């Protein structure tokens, strides 16, 4: 029986045959992961890793019962002891759980973490949206200043520049603190009450649980309806207004362009104050490539100290799709520097021995899986994108010599077997 992958999932493979799936090539994923780790550590973030599944209650309490994630999208199951578990649908709640459970707050009140990994949501699969997807993100804990918001935004801005992205936009808003959010919710509900029957079923549920989420609607009729809705900016407390104005001013100081978007609220219940999204026009409907904001109060809600916190998460699939669509440059995939082509049994044994010695000297080396003809072996070397091929046969062994062939220039150089390691080591050192 032949098996196929479940809907909404995909493989990451070394060589992708179809051009439209080029972003699934493992060399591109490795490059992106390396770049994430590089910039995160440059900005002072340390890596944290959490389990792929957690107790369901963590997400209900942390993400919010009214969120689509909790109400519709989680993969939830009972373990053998009858406890409800869920595959992690997002990264912030697990990181905060880990921070509290491991007593990291006892090591100081200021911490900066980053993470990379797979997440899971039962969603309608489409380009840029999968049931297993990958995110990278950061969480900065213990600093409630506008500068901390700006730092994580600046990190994303710098990261996208380094990757060579273009044609993207930073959307920025504030959802204020609880003191100003509660009266705003009432004002929004009062505005929507006369139009309640025109709302979608989802928005009718959100009307009671969290009316701000209605602002996040993708329904065109509801968007038109909301054009005359009150703005959160008319209800901001002096403290929230001061914080948001400072964020805007500091982004301008750093020459980071943004667009204030009053209806941007984000889809998770724990956000307050600053919220933002980076969007691109290269992906069609799924235009968000990363998003985040401040979530003061979440650590206390999950049993820890009352520390201010902010962070973001970015989708790696969408980022790679965007990079491909914009023809961003990727480095060449890792390839062997040397590829041995043995022509008979004795030379295969010698090539196997030399391959091991080359690898001990940190020279990327591979060899044909068995003895082969010269032309076939060279084709294998080119398929592997090797720099040099070394042909070994009966004549080479008898004459204590090997043929070193540069696969791009086609230049051939005979080298004594006793000098082969030192010659190749020098060549590799100078590449």
What can you tell me about this protein's structure?
The chain is of the alpha+beta class. The chain has 2 domains: 19-177 and 237-325, BirA Bifunctional Protein, domain 2 (2-Layer Sandwich); 338-429, Anticodon-binding domain (Rossmann fold, 3-Layer(aba) Sandwich). It is built from 15 helices and 16 strands. It has helices at residues 26-42, 56-63, 68-73, 92-101, 146-163, 178-192, 201-209, 220-225, 238-253, 298-301, 316-325, 345-360, 374-383, 394-398, 417-429; strands spanning 46-47, 53-55, 76-78, 84-87, 111-120, 132-141, 168-174, 259-260, 272-280, 288-294, 309-315, 338-342, 365-367, 388-392, 401-406, 412-416. The strands form 3 sheets. An 8-stranded mixed β-sheet has the order 1-5-6-11-10-9-7-8. The protein has a 5-stranded mixed β-sheet with strand order 13-12-14-15-16, sandwiched between helices. Strands 2-4-3 form a 3-stranded antiparallel β-sheet. Strand 15 (401-406) and strand 16 form a beta hairpin. The longest helix has 18 residues, at 146-163. It is elongated, with a radius of gyration of 28 Å. 35% of the residues are buried.
Secondary structure elements and their pairing?
Elements: H1 26-42, E1 46-47, E2 53-55, H2 56-63, H3 68-73, E3 76-78, E4 84-87, H4 92-101, E5 111-120, E6 132-141, H5 146-163, E7 168-174, H6 178-192, H7 201-209, H8 220-225, H9 238-253, E8 259-260, E9 272-280, E10 288-294, H10 298-301, E11 309-315, H11 316-325, E12 338-342, H12 345-360, E13 365-367, H13 374-383, E14 388-392, H14 394-398, E15 401-406, E16 412-416, H15 417-429
């Amino acid at each position: 029986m032949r098996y196929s992958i479940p809907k909404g999932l995909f493989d990451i493979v070394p060589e992708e045959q179809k051009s439209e799936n080029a972003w699934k090539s493992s060399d591109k994923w490795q490059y992106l992961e390396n770049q994430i780790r590089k910039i995160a550590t440059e900005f002072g973030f340390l890596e944290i890793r959490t389990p792929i599944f957690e107790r369901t209650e963590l997400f209900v309490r942390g993400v919010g019962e009214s969120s689509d994630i909790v109400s519709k999208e989680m993969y939830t199951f009972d373990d053998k002891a009858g406890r409800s578990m869920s595959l992690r649908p997002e990264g912030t709640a697990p990181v905060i759980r880990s921070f509290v459970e491991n007593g990291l707050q006892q090591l100081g009140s200021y911490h900066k973490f980053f993470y990379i990994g797979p997440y899971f949501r039962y969603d309608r699969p489409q380009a840029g949206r999968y049931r297993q997807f990958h995110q990278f993100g950061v969480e900065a804990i213990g600093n409630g200043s506008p500068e901390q918001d700006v730092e994580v935004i600046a990190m994303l801005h710098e990261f996208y520049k380094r990757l060579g992205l273009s044609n993207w936009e930073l959307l920025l808003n504030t959802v204020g603190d609880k003191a100003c959010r509660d009266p705003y919710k009432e004002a929004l509900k009062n505005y929507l009450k006369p139009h309640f029957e025109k709302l979608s079923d989802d928005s009718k549920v959100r009307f009671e649980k969290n009316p701000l989420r209605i602002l996040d609607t993708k329904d065109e009729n509801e968007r038109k309806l909301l054009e005359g809705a009150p703005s959160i900016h008319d209800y901001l407390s002096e403290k929230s207004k001061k914080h948001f104005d400072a964020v805007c001013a500091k982004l301008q100081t750093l020459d980071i362009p943004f667009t204030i978007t009053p209806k941007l609220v984000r889809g998770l219940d724990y956000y307050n104050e600053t919220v933002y999204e980076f969007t691109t026009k290269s992906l069609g409907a799924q235009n968000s490539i990363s998003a985040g904001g401040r979530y003061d109060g979440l650590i206390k809600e999950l049993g820890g100290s009352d520390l201010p916190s902010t962070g973001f998460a970015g989708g790696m699939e969408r980022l790679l799709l965007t990079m491909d669509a914009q023809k961003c440059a990727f480095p060449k995939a890792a390839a062997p520097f040397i590829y041995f082509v043995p022509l008979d049994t004795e030379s295969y044994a010698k090539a196997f021995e030399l391959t091991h010695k080359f690898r001990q000297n940190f020279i990327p080396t591979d060899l044909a899986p068995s003895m082969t003809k010269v032309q076939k072996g060279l084709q294998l070397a080119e398929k592997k994108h090797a720099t040099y091929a070394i042909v070994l046969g009966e004549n080479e062994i008898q004459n204590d010599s090997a043929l070193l062939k540069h696969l791009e220039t086609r230049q051939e150089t005979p080298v004594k077997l006793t000098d082969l390691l030192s010659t190749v080591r020098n060549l590799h050192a100078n590449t």
